[in-house]
Fold:
Amino acid sequence: MGEKTFLGSWPLVRQLSGTDPLGRGKAAKSTRSERWHARTADADKVVDSICPYCAVGCGQKIYVKDGAITQIEGDPASPVSRGRLCPKGSASKQLVTSSTRVTKVRYRRPYGTEWEDLDLDTAMDMITDRVLATRKQYWQWEVDGRRVRRTMGIASLGGATLDNEENYLMKKLYTALGALQIENQARI
Structure:
């Protein structure tokens, strides 16, 4: 490499001798950084989502390439967050792509010491059986001569990241089951 080429590779020399006197554009780029591009540029599709953490409900853009998440960023069109994410929201890519994330139904039997994997259909059947048995066991037709038609054995505490539609559906489900104790974490 000649002396002129070597000196021309310095950002300060490029800044003073070129068309970028403030050093905010081409003068600041190295040959290596010129090859870089944003992870979002290669995305096959962009999916709109909501941050899964707190009750604020910040908008997120999820960038996907070849079926894998490559980046999660704030959604500038979101009226809630206007493209900003807190540290937890900014790190939500690691939440869904971590090698330590549990992706199977894990079950530990009563008095058991080991976890076992269950298929989803078996787990859903177990949940259904337990909900119906609890509803039947704690069902009340009347209390003090007043017709109540309720169960006191089922309660719900909804998550704060649920949107209005999900909260509405949960309220309808638990009311149809006869439950009275239905609350949402955002109000606590």
